[in-house]
Protein 1
Amino acid sequence: MTQHSPLRAHLTRRGILQGGGALVVSFTAPATIAAAATATAARPKPLDPVQLDSYLVIHKNGSATLLFGKIDGGQGTDVGIAQIVAEELDLPADKVAVLMGDTALTVNQGGASGSFGIIWGGRAMRKVAAEARRFLLARAAERLGVPVEKLTVSDGVISVVDAPRKKIGYGQLIGGKFFNLPLKWNGKDGIQLDFTSDAPLKKPADYKVVGTSPKRRDVKPKVFAQPATYVSDIRLPGMLHARVIRPPVAGATANAVDETSIKSIPGARIVQQGGYIAVVAEKEWNAIRAAQALKVSWSQPAPAFVEPAQLYDHIRKAPVRERKVEKQVGNVDTAMAGATKVVEADYEWPFQSHASMGSAAAVAALKDGKLTVWTGTQKPHYAQQGVAHLLDMPLEQVHAVWVTGPGSYGRNDAGDAALEAAFLAKATGRPVRVQGMRAEGIQWDPKAPASVHHAKAGLDAAGKIVAYHFESKGFSRLEIDSNESDPAHSLIGQQWGLPLKPIQSFGVPDEDYQVPNRLMAWETIPPFLERVSPLRTSHQRDPVGPQIHFASESFIDELALAAKADPVEFRLRHLKGRDAAAVKAAAEKFGWQPRVAGPTGNSKADIVTGRGIAYAKRLGTIVVVAAEVEVDRRSGKVRAKRYAVAHDCGCVVNPALLHNTIEGNIVQATSRSLWEEVHFDPHKVTSVDWETYPILDITEAPEKIDIVLLDHRELPPTGAGEPSSRPVAGALANAIFDATGVRLRRAPFRPEALKGSFA
Amino acid sequence: MATKIHLVVDGKPHSLSVDDPNMPLLYALRDELGMANPHFGCGLAQCGACTVHVNGQATRSCVTPLSAVKDAKITTLAGLGTQDHPHPLQAAYVEEQVPQCGYCINGWIMTAAALLKSNPHPSDEEIRKGLSGLKCRCGTHMAIIRAVKRAAQMA
């Protein structure tokens, strides 16, 4: 499989067509990059979302390139999409290259977003491939002089069923030429881009490519350290290195900047506009030294935050910005009043950080009025819009090229870096590479919101839930939008004083417990600091999923205990169909023995073990996680020893890559459940590195994660990038209760949370 | 005052002239020699994304001053093996499809390579202890352990 260099900016779609299928973009010599960078920005008109040619190219050798307006964060979305397209085109998967996230070459399909890559991205691309196949069959029928019904396709070669010598390949039919085939576009861009199509789709029973496990295309370049694999590796001639100066205290603004403080550092200088300060230098190390040496006199604002111990009280008492009832069935109050037993509990979740493996980097160059930015953002088309707005440039003059960044789990610091690199390139007239120091990615990235959750439910005499009321209250999941298309949602834009546009959003549990009366709602509260806040909140992997389902699935176990029921059996009382099947599959894989949760055997031993289960849905995907924990009663330390996971996301496109994706979710969610909490004091965020924001160590990783994939080939895929992140905290909290009899209602489950609990 | 430093990186000798002899090795490799690896992860020796071998020892290049590695023999991930002649760990990483974002990869592979050299057949426990402290944010730890075990069997 051909690897695309991210320095492909000189490619045009016509160039791809004429590439004859090789599509080898050799590593461009640095001297030519800057010139090349702007070539595609000169395109006469934007890509037309209606034209099939905007998505698919057939080369002369019969292979295909898909131009995909999304990106892959390392889970293999591109491979899955290639399989879906290859299936419909009757090509082997390795004959479908996928070019992603270049705004000059791909239509805006929303980038990576909400686990929609395979769900909606795959749905749209499948139709593109089916339309192309129908078109090619019609052409072949003309050329071969037989009706379409007499034709069959194998490996991109169309032949006559009863005369197999009469054949013609895709390459001969259309290779290197445009289809000029308009599609029935739904008029939407971003993740909702789709088409109406009546081109026949392959029957699931006939799948040859979907359901197999071709390998990822980005692994070898990463393992063998191929140049320009990462956005931080992009280098341009004449490029300056930049480091950004963030306020030392939340809300502080610069009164004065002392230029003389960096004058001994070769080539270092200050770039400043409207409250935004950066230093640039020819050499990266000198930019870093300058950032450390620069003396700035800062304002001394009143404390922006509360004492950390007051966080959850603050949330409970804070005014409500918006309230939304998302689910309401029956009459909760009446049913609760008539219940045999009523259970009530509160749960709390802290701010968390993306804490990507490296802080974000971006590179930008302005040439002949056209700006190119290389960015690790999940949503390059929105970064293009954000840069155009920030710099007041026409959209066509801005070109964003996605290149793999250091981790991608939502709206991290990559969007800020893209906009800042663009500004710095314009301000200096030189190509600029900006990269954050460690603190930019932990102290200053947009945070997953802190929240409190209140659950109340009534059980009837038979131990079934008759009334269920669930409320969340917290910081909005979108104080900062999930993309950077509007610079009001970036640090630099906020420092420039752009009008703020916070969005109010949270969420409710996603499950299908059969409960006759339920009310589920959320409330958002104002941020501590409206502008340039290191605690501004946005989307982090499975936005608000971990916090909500920690609460809801812990609570289901509390109900099971009140009903004196086994947690699996109690869930099965209220579930049916695929949901029940997933619970059974996880329990069976785990080796679950039915009993009421709580310590058994020698509960005073130094090390006690327990098991817990949790179930959740997301966009139709069902995940059930059964966990075994060990708790050291002396230290309070929890070890997530073993998991069994049942995962039902409809049709499984690539089982091996799905397995690794789920495994990554489970381990990352284990880290968030056991360790992760952004620390702050009234003036600032004090989590700045891996010592102050610890994550799971390999010595603490589970011994075993068993994964059962429940494949429903006849159903559409429903996504796997995030769903398995959400039930982990609940499963662990339930297992900790089973081991110790201590119910933890606040995450994370650090040793200090448990240590005092044992007499 | 520029200082001259000699290094041998992935078998090739280099002579550098730097403004600050205390500049960490990482910036010499990336910015002076134009290498795409190792990566800047934290600058604090807390994550391992910058790991190289200095005279065979796994070393965090982000905090290693150039002055401390004068005339040293440096090996980076790119010098460990190639697609045609992969190090067993690289082959195992491909086979197990370990990395997701992969930004952490220098730390794990370079540290594991040094580990396998001193202990060619480590137990699970020894692998975990030997790699403790390295960070992977995508949560690929299970696949990392599988790959190190596979590499140990291949070697």
Protein 2
Amino acid sequence: MSQRPVAHPRSGSPARTVGSSHHGTTFWVLGLLGWAAIAYAAWGVVAHPGGTDPPNFGVWFVGGLLVHDLVVAPIVLMVGVAIRRRVRRGRAAVQAALIVSATLCLFSLPVLLGLGGLRDNPTLLPRNETAGLLVLLAVVWAVTAAGLLVLRSRHRPPSTRHRPAETSGGTRP
Amino acid sequence: MIGRADRLRRGPFREGAFTSRLHSERLGAILGVALGVTFGVCFLTGLLSHLIQHPPGWFHWTSRPAGVYRVTQGLHVATGVASIPLLLAKLWVVYPHLWRWPPIASVAHALERLSLVPLVGGSVFLLFSGVASIIRWFPWHFSFPRAHYWASWAAIGGLLVHIGAKAASTRRALGREGAAPVVAAAAEAGPEGGLSRRGFLGAVAAAVGVLTVATVGQAVRPLSGLSALAPRDPDVGPQGFPINRTAHEAKVERLATDPAYRLLVEGRVADPLALSMDELRAMPMREATLPIPCVDGWNVSKTWRGVPVADLLARAGASADLRDGVLVESLEPKGAYRVSMLDPAHARDPDTLLALEVEGEPLALDHGFPLRLITPNAPGVMQTKWVGRLEVR
């Protein structure tokens, strides 16, 4: 592939890198295959309306994209900004624990909202999901707190701010 | 002209709008490779499941070794679940690209960005619909397996286009330790006390690990005690294992318990049969320990006892080749899974049974009393319950 060592488009200069000179055989071969598969998918949805219900399919397909890009991602970004402003000590640990907690909450949200399940089938969702989620969250935050305490005690920085960084025990174990 | 266009560059389009050092090319590349692997596994195992359930003429699924489908379908659901934190992390890392300026730089770039609609839309659709379906939540009007199948082609197509477009930059980002962040301003931000890139990856890996342990116990039995969020517990149900469709839901209670019940063996046979339960019990029985692997990702292995389908076909004088397979029909009046097709290899397999008993007890009504089809290597939905008729095609 012909690839010039050009600046990455982040650098603010108009995106030269994404011009055609950047694109070699891989781009066009995989591009062709990929668009063929996408066209096959579009045909499949339209040609089997009995099973796919194309308008409804379209709503859910595009809806998921929009909900993520315009609702979920901005909320996460705002939470991130709030954490950066409010959490001073142990911020990394809080962020990590939130990433794990949010994943678990998101996954169990439909069940917690009472969606899903079958009235006449007690073998589906037989557990107490709320209790399970609370226990998992408790474990996640307990492990995070314990990890933080261990790190703090191991790297207790000397009470001086003006000492050079390399004598303060480093940032990694 | 450029000046006028640049006046539109507002809000998230502004340079430096995203300041976190975690919006990094290297993180995007690592998460992208991980998702490439999980989506590849999901696509292939899903395609296999589709082919097994809707076999085109050229496809013949093997009946041996027993339990392959249990592994592939368990993997399908587990990798799909594991993809949730990976996808969200990836989309967050590359989010500034959504607002890049100028939005489109060339025709190739336009095609590349357009392919993100099937890729991201398809990915979100597949993970959401997959998770909703395993808890039996169907908030839409389409058929889940149909829509999930076609959406997977859209997503995998988008993924191929994306790999073609990003192969070079991914290789570059992975080759360099600590590649520069997407947003130049982040480099100047210096240590901010938050997660490092390595820490972020660690947290995402922890999310994958915890979510997996919290759900995979429905397929991997030793972990079922830890899987607090799994939709199924493999030990909970009548006779100690779950059911997908109850007798009540299938409306078979009366037909299945009718004393006049007869199993019919018909079609291309010399002597059609109509056997009562007593006649069936008088036939030589066979025992086999085989799994029921549900498409929803859970499975249980049980010891079944029943009459081999091959014996019934021989008794009815079916021709030995069974060229076009055997149709197995349930007493259910309706439902997408009231019939299943037995491929010749599965119909001939000595362990393919019409089971009367499980673990030494007569089958519970919810597990398919009076007869349930048990095959060594087929999805649970094809192990038809409340069997009323075999038809040699």
